[in-house]
Write a structure and sequence with these properties.
Elements (H helix, E strand, L loop, with lengths): L20 E5 L6 H12 L2 E4 L1 H12 L4 H6 L14 H10 L3 H15 L5 E5 L2 H5 L5 E6 L2 H14 L6 H17 L12 E4 L5 H16 L1
Parallel strand pairs: 1-3, 1-4, 2-3, 4-5
């Protein structure tokens, strides 16, 4: 179960000298998940897709549970639910993410994960700006809405979900607007983050650039 935390607390994630924290933020389908997993594997770091926390809460809300209760009673096993990548859950996750109390209930777990021995990679919307403001490396992964919608559609199709491209693009743009305009921890690039635009990059190229940035920071 995740423990609640005061959402006003500053995010200090590198208090442990044995840890190395990589914070990766960005909008949906920009490639941050692919990059984060590859970076974690390359350096032997642990990886946390923080968006799954909100998706898991969103899934519980869709089943009828109160959002705050869902966040406070979330179990690690909930992150393995096979329906967390569905469009309905994605929309629910984006909606519950604007709830200050829900966010507070999930902050402590993320910060504890970030300082584990051996290094950690966390990807999400507010890792560098709220959760881990002192991360060793901060990346903001982005791409054009059209490119991101194409990637999302390909992902959905691969999972047997057929949607019109116009609907997927509208969903991406709606999530962008909601994430950027929310009052609490809006999606934005941290002032000291490196922006990585993947619009015209292959996955391998984007991963290579991220690894290069991290290696420079570790040297």
């Amino acid at each position: 179960m995740f423990v609640g935390a005061d959402h006003t607390t500053e995010g200090f994630c590198n208090m442990n000298s044995a840890s190395f924290t990589v914070a990766i933020d960005g909008p949906a389908a920009a490639g941050k998940g692919t990059i984060s997993k590859a970076v974690a594997a390359y350096f032997g770091f642990s990886h946390l897709d923080t968006g799954l926390l909100y998706r898991a809460v969103g899934a519980k809300v869709l089943s009828g549970m109160d959002a705050l209760k869902a966040a406070q009673t979330l179990e690690v096993a909930d992150l393995n639910s096979p329906n967390l990548r569905s469009p309905d859950v994605a929309q629910a996750a984006s909606r519950v993410a604007v709830d200050v109390d829900v966010r507070a209930a999930l902050v402590a777990f993320q910060r504890q994960f970030a300082v584990r021995d051996g290094g950690a990679v966390l990807d999400g919307r507010d890792i560098a700006t709220v959760i881990c403001v002192d991360a060793d490396v901060k990346l903001f992964v982005t791409a054009s809405p059209t490119k991101r919608a194409k990637r999302r559609m390909d992902e959905l199709n691969a999972n047997g979900i057929e949607l019109a491209f116009s609907d997927v693009l509208a969903d991406v743009e709606a999530r962008d607007k909601r994430d950027r305009e929310r009052a609490t921890a809006p999606l934005k690039c941290a002032d000291d983050a490196v922006m990585l635009d993947t619009t015209h990059l292959t996955a391998d190229e984007a991963i290579a650039r991220a690894i290069k940035y991290i290696m420079a920071a570790r040297s």
